[in-house]
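note to self — DONT lose this again. spent like an hour looking for the file last time. sequence + predicted structure for the chain T wanted, 580 res
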Amino acid sequence: MINLFNEHIKSFLDHDSGFDKDDIQLIKDKYKTEITDDLSKGHITTNIGLVSGNLLGVNPREIAEKIKKYLVELKEVADVEVAGPGFLNIFLNRSYFAAVVNESSKLNNKFGHSDHGYKKSIQIEFVSANPTGPLHVGHGRGAAFGDAIGKILQANGYSVSKEYYINDAGRQIDILAASVWLRLHNCFDENSFPESGYKGKYIIDIANQIDPNAKIDSSKVKNITSGLPEDAEEQIDALIKIFKEEDISLWEQIKKVSLDTVLKSIEEDLKAFKVDFDNWYYESSLGSLQDSGSKISQAIDQLKTSGLAYEEKGAIWLNTEKAGDDKNRVLIRDDGRPTYFAADLAYHKDKVDRGFDRLINVWGSDHHGYIKRIEASLEGLGFSKNKLHVQLVQFANLYQGKEKVKMSTRSGSFYTLKDLIKEIGVDAARFYYLSKQADQHLDFDIELAKSQNKENLIFYIQYAHARIASLQNKYLESNKELPENLDTIKDGSYLACDKLIHEASKFPGVVKRSGETLQPHLIVFYLRDIAHLLHSYYNNNPILKESKENQESILQSLGLVKLVISNGLNLLGIEALEKM
């Protein structure tokens, strides 16, 4: 509907406006056409008069009146009014308005989709939690967000690749392996276990997978774990070094089993959460600095050539101050070891090299200070920083009643994503993660998510869909099939039905805006509003007591509402229920 009227307006500008060609292009770039907020302002509104008047330096209402004369002659239009400083409110004739329902029925599950992103590719990297323990509820928000954005962008015509970056080559994996080593050899009790080690039950479970015959002699264990540094970080680093030197074969075995086990649990939890990835990218595949042909060494060399990377006091630094960072950052330490940052910039170079038109990183809010560094590295590698969009996601706080649930991977005291799914289900979890703008604080109330009343939005929206399904089933008890085509909409008492169709016609625009702004919560808010209209209409109208003709019109209109709710929930990765 919007596209049709944009074509009419552009045709007027090109053939009937008398405007200069360059002015016409400026107007086309700036004016907007939208579905109105409510039917009192018509079905469609456009600011074409206001934009044209401001650009051309003439009275906007005069231009609006001229465009009005053109639009009222169209067969789809019942009336046009000039409002305010050059707005046009367009009222459609009822037969065309009814055609919205018929068109949506033909599109079915593609209603709301578009080709805005045709032939453009986007890579979304999200979750990417260190594989050092199970996913907790804090990770769930990024998982739900990244997956929903992928679905929404695909609905907007983009080619989307979803990726999980596995940090398998850093110090955290060594700490994981050291923690398992200590559990395998029964070192320390719960109170004296190294503060920087991982303490969850899953560490014991991993240790139980290691062949007990592979353990080193118990007398050596006592010597190894005595006389350690007091500082927590120095202590775990000392243990890692000792374990490697003592039995490198056992160490590598423990490290592999630990990583494989944790990764398997992460993949299984995400699959249960209805999140999948097109690619699992291992940090270790970037290679080492010692290999001149590796991705990481090539990236560092390119930064040196560009003059952005430089050597100082035996270390290699990247000039990130040019990109607005508060100081320059170390890439290679003075002992030759690369930092996490070095691997990250090599990874981002590889992303761009793979040919994506746009990169989206979904990061926790604690990574805010990291953005400037990555932007600086991209520009130093010869790419535009505008190619990358970083979406920060606030970690969710989980509450059981009034008590806040603690989440700490190191301490082993955390509420896992798997626990949340068991408690409230996948759909409720995804919905509440997506119910608020991603960079805003979110308090997740488990008790509310489990309730079955209108205060629980996911219940309220799914109930709207189930209500229409129930109504359709009752109609089919005395009819062979549901009505297929809506010829017109009755006047008078069926104005509420008009409102439902009008609200449903906004859906494609909501999907488009949600993709443009990377804000899935816009779909949540929209579904809330249309569910509210549906419940109000259903409660105030005895639909199955109407005449056969009226029943058909109403059911066809409600079928559009049902389709919109189903398609909207699907974009959020949530099932639309037929029964509740």
